[in-house]
Every structure is written in C-alpha cells, then in structure tokens.
From TrEMBL:
It comes from the Bacteria. Pfam families: DsrE. It comes from Frankia torreyi. This is Putative peroxiredoxin.
C-alpha cells in the first residue's frame, strides 16, 4: 500500500515551471497507484475552470489538460475556498469532479496518518 500524497499547487501561469512540476508529480503518483489529493491555491486556482488548463504552455512539458485529467481520473482535486472567492467563482463554475473546500479540510488531509505533503 502506498502512502497518501497531498500536493499543494500555489503557482499558475505566473511560475510555469513550478506549476508544471506540481501537476507532473501528482499525475505520476496517480499513475503509480498512490492516493493523491491536489490542492489548487493562489494562481493555480484558475485551472479549476473549464478551458483554463488549455491556455497553459511550457516547452518540453506534458500538456496541463492531460495531467489534470489523469489526476481527476484517479485522485482528487480541491480549490481553496478563499482563492476561488477572490477570483469570483464557485462550485457551479469548476470542472466536474473538482471541489471547493477550506483550510480545515486541507489540514485534515495533511495531518492524516502516513500522508506525505508537497508544496509547489
């Protein structure tokens, strides 16, 4: 059994390499069978909206829509409540399968037994 992995993504188009690294690590972990939870915060919150991942480009990197689809297929994606509110979107606006939740839910996940957490 693999340990759960929580990946907190803080970067978006403002820091494309960090952003791509976070999504790549999460997608590879899902493909390896890990229990993966990705939290979109700050500028990465935009990728919860339909079509936004397709706007992301980084040479020599896997397409962000493919990485996100892989994560959603076998893991969980959550957008920070405050980050969504600051960007004026809510639960009805996000890609199906993505939820919006707050800091208490994040802390619960990170403090669970055996969890590994990464922040990008």
């Amino acid at each position: 059994m693999t340990r759960p992995l929580v990946v907190k993504v803080t970067a978006g188009m403002d820091a494309p390499e960090r952003c791509s690294q976070a999504f790549t690590v999460a997608a590879v972990a899902v493909a390896a069978g890990a229990d993966v939870s990705v939290w979109l915060t700050g500028e990465s919150a935009w990728f919860a909206l339909p079509g936004r991942a397709a706007e992301f480009e980084l040479p020599h990197a896997a397409p962000l829509p493919d990485l996100l689809a892989g994560i959603l297929a076998g893991g969980r994606v959550t957008v920070c409540t405050q980050c969504a509110a600051r960007r004026s979107f809510g639960p009805d606006d996000v890609i199906p399968g993505i939820r919006i939740a707050g800091a208490a839910a994040f802390v619960d996940e990170v403090l669970a037994d055996g969890v590994q957490a990464l922040v990008y």
